[in-house]
Amino acid sequence: MTEQAPVPGSLPALMERWGPNYRWYVTITAMMGTVSTVLSSTIVNVALPDIMGTFGMGQDKAQLISTGFLAAMTGTMLISAWLVDNFGQRATFSGTIAVFIVASVMGGLAPSEQVLVLARVLQGGAAGVLQPLAMVTIFQVFPPDRRGSAMGIYGIGVVLAPALGPTLGGLMVDNFNWRFVFFLVLPSCIAGLFLSALFMPGRASTGPRKPFDWIGFALLSVFLVVLLNGLSNGQRHGWMSHMVLLDFTIAAISGLAFLAWETWTAAPMLNLSLFRFPSFSGASVVAIVFGAGIFGSTYLVPIFVQTIQGYTATRSGLVLMPAGLILTIAFPIAGRLTDKLPADVMITAGLLLFAWSSFLMAGLDTNTPFWSLAIWIALGRIGLSLIMPSLNAGALRALPPQLLGQGSGALNFVRQLGGAIGTNLLAVMSERRGQLYAHAFAASQDTANPTTVDMLRQLLSYLLAEGGVPEGGVAPGFGAESIGLAEGQRLGYALDYLGRMLAAQAAMMGYRDGFLLVAIAFVVAIPPAWLMRVRSRHAG
Questions:
Q1: What would the pLDDT profile of 137-156 be if each residue is shown by its tens digit?
Q2: How far apart are CA 361 and CA 365, in angstroms?
């Protein structure tokens, strides 16, 4: 009896055609999509001030550029498995890359803020489909004893792109125009589109197509949009305002309705039975914290160094560059270690390293040297390189083959959800803590505070040395009964400088608290990682 030939275009047929190197060809193809889409999630951040100036946008509308991308990216991660099942990996990958190319061109040529926001939503939707697809593709072509190494390669794109995004975006903004930020990813997208026709497998099954969960998708979309909108507007409009409370109420109702519907429907977007596997549940908790850590820190660092230390957009991106370069070495090594060490050991070590890095960042001040900051960030990125391969390989290893697609989408979904919510919460928390510090500092500035008195005396002495203040002139309440006009002007300058100094100090303390919160979150995520050891013992 002769052996049946593999179906043309299927994964076995492609592996037979291209030989042992096929797994690397398809891995490079998948990484083209991953790097391009993840890069777009952070590269626009440094261009926001210029975009706001071009269109005269306020902070609330500018927030939609980031929030729209994150909401769309998070929501479409769960439809990746459905698209692959119904149309195949090649058609899904090619079609999604094509949408991403069109959206990127639309964003770069956007004539209005409405078109720009629409372009970002389309970019985010495409990015959400591509990331789980790439992970499953790489996982399929590597044997079980090399899947940790494969996830290490996949992790390079997921973590390296956010690290390089601010640097490349800063160079584009400072030397060209913010519109070039959107065009930067086009070469890699076009290359990925060409390679997918050669190396991406077609549809695995020939049976009828599965129905799409439109109700679940609608409920999830409502949940993400109103939740992120409420988090974005809470600090500006007040957390107890009717608008923000309405957003959170709708988010709670739609989120619970989504979970109920996914439990009841026969073709769910999110198969909740995935969470019956302790290893996958533990990995999901770690993934949420992981997403918040990588996207939140990538958001906080550029803003801190630009607003507190006075860095340019390019320099603020360059501070992340050493960490990105180190990742290209650390990820393959971490991937190999994943194949030899238990997942929970690798993840725990990575969580502790990133927590240590965040704790060091909680001591930042205006005088922190560039290279100290770069080394601290690099330390945290090494921790992420230990987490990512073990997290992906350990979580998917626990699932039966028929749940791999949904498991990949769900894991990427919770990681991205953690990034979206975590970034918003860190931004809000840092700003709010900074305001609290500012009020506390302002309340202590009076004549009973010897530090304030001494500071003003020093400032006025400096201004007197520069000329324009009569000799012996000092501030009222600090030893003089009357002052002249020039003296009053100098006093005004001194008080203004003191106020700006206190505001900068308060903002710095707020950012410190943000980094400290990240450190605490990563330590809290260690016990859920131990659930992955339960799976290993059970398998043994």
A1: 777 777 777 766 676 666 66
A2: 9
